[in-house]
Amino acid sequence: MPQRLVTGVAAFGLIGGVTAVVAAPAEAAAATPATAACVFVNGTTGAEGTNAHGLPEISGGSTFTKPGTSTCHDFNLWSGKVGVSYEGWLYYGNGNWGACSAGYVRYSGGSIVLCTNVEAGTIEAVTSTNGSGQSIEIMD
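That's the Secreted protein sequence above. Prediction below.
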């Protein structure tokens, strides 16, 4: 007797010494949500500065929040101006921003990593050597 793989929910029972198999349609098993992916967002660069307490800060430009649904572990620049260098920043609370350890990274097309291992919910920003207000697209 050929063997058959049954997808979906199956119920097995013993009826008079004969095994019966009842299977639900495979569509029921396929109802799980699709795998999440990296999130792409457009924005602008901000300017690096110092706040009243002498702490680094970012002013102007867009801030981004690392989504919990993203499969990306890093904060990446997806699109910017070729030849310009970009730096990622993370917000730690109480007016405290910190530049990522990668520093300024020159953009030559494609994707570049600005910050590694960024946790969901973290507020992020980008500065550039071309100043604030530069159009960018991030991959988060």
